[in-house]
Amino acid sequence: MAGTDDEAVAAADDALYVLTAVLLTPAQFPSVLGDDYPEACAALDLAPRADGYGLVLGQDGEGARWTVVIDDVSLVAVAIASWDCGMEYELSPDERAVVTALPGWPLAVAVAAPGVPAPHDPAPAEAGRPALSPPDTASWGPAQRRLGADEIALQWAAWRAQIDDADFPAPGGQQPKPAGAAPEGEGAASGGHAGVRRVLAEARAYVESPPPLGRVRSSFAPGEARTLRADGPGWSIVARTDDIAFVLLDEEPGEVLPVGRGPELPGLLEALDKMAVRPL
What we know:
Blueprint: H1 6-13, E1 17-24, H2 37-42, E2 53-59, E3 65-70, H3 73-84, E4 98-103, H4 124-127, H5 142-154, H6 156-160, H7 194-208, E5 216-220, E6 226-232, E7 235-240, E8 245-249, E9 257-259, H8 265-275
Antiparallel strand pairs: 1-2, 2-3, 3-4, 5-6, 6-7, 7-8, 8-9
Helix pairs in contact: 7-8
């Protein structure tokens, strides 16, 4: 597999101080790495394995950053669930589960291992390949757009509270901008903002011609609803299947564009949810 280096694996496996871990699966992957699962895998020189991977981020005894890729997805899922509940869990992957060790971290990590030098990339001779680094999110672009969609999905209630259904006019009208966002929306899934119309058309096309795995994902939401996430070239959608949607566009820096349910959005969300991948 691309990126595998026995010496690098041995170096990272020697006293790796685990700092965090994330899943890289069709239904759950760091969206900052790509619009879909194969693209996120390609960012790490990994083949898009059907069962996915676990990414263990840590430092070796010299403080060097390493990302250890393992095929024991369940182990990483249990560790993440335990940490999210405030429980201690020692994540110690069996060496037989290690697929490869990659120098650097693909994501920003705000903590460091105690008692070792500050985080730094391994020496090129030891790493065997260029070190991974987080995508640049200092300026608006695909990575920043996807991070923005992540934030809306996590803080749905706060974003939704800024939108009054009465603000949605008839198709083609304008609506006020709520505090904390810069929405330009439409009262239905037709008319209104040209970029939104394009995004909705491309999302409808997914129903007829399935996109790469992970472009459309469905996750838990309160009640019987689902949180729906769809991404495409230059755009992201976050929606609740029983509510409205928010659209983010590469060409609209920092803008969050709400889309009212109207006559078409409910059917589109239902169709996308049926084809979406879901966490196991």
